[in-house]
Amino acid sequence: MAQSHSSSLVSSHKASDSGLQIHLHPLVLLTVSDFITRHTLRRQQGPIVGALLGQHNGRDITLEYAFECQVVSGDQGAVLLHQAWFQDRLQQYKDVHKEPALDLVGWFTTTPPSGPEAQHVPIHQQIIHDYNETAVLLAFHPASVLAGGENNGKLPLTIYESVYESQEADRDRSMDLDGQQVPLNLKFQELSCSVDTGQAEMIS
Fold first, then answer.
1. What contacts 190, CB < 8 A, 6 or more positions away?
2. In whole angstroms, how large is the CA radius of gyration of the chain?
3. pTM
4. CA separation for the pair 52, 54 (Å, rounded)
5. CA triplet 52, 33, 100: central angle to 5 degrees?
6. Which of 112, 136, 114 shows the shortest CA–CA distance to 124?
């Protein structure tokens, strides 16, 4: 299998500075896999986009539930969440999951193994600006599954947080050039994760 090159939107810094620990529940994997399968078999058009619900306690983020989302085309064809629909659906889930209280902690979509691309940026910015500034992205890589081959037992997915970096990644982020602030660009930083099973999931 050919080696994939990193997307230009993936941070060049290998280690995350945030210290976030992601705990991925199997139910999310099942929900997203089912969504991708149905979307593919029905030959549906448009991107695969969904929301992730969980808890954010300190440096720990749990990804416990997922649901698919409606999207619309924004300016210049940018893919965005259908705002009114999403707000209603999110509130419905929050009303059901009150103990423990769950909230929007991220979103999911499909990407190449190399990472997120330009079309993924508008919806990520919408989520971190309107709902949760620390929202993570769960990126599934269908191409890795179709290609087969050795994957060292790793799930075909990557979880990212968003960071802002200068165009010159090797420079210190706090440096100014001639007294002017260095422009910062949105980048995606890979996070490590563990697969956790809750009591209800073990019973089922």
1. 10, 11, 16, 158, 159, 160
2. 18
3. 0.85
4. 7
5. 30
6. 136
